[in-house]
Structure prediction request, 93 residues.
Amino acid sequence: MAGITGNLAGLALAQEDWPAAEKLAREALPLSEKVGRRELIAGNCHHLAKSLVGQGKGTEGLPYARRAVDIYTRLASLNLEDARATLRECEPQ
Prediction:
């Protein structure tokens, strides 16, 4: 369920349906935390941060973006650069 819900959040992001992406990412994050898979946790944090940026609430997404970057860094993930870009978008100018 954690992976499927996270994938649905990713699809909503691709369609720029920011509120739906936020809702789905918020549902997926605790599921992924319960499973304990760091890649899923990072992905859902990243989706949540991106959805908040899309709604003009980047500051609210900042802790999620930071968490995604932290986890992706430890995993040496290929998603790290995208997560860093999202983090930059969340940071106050």
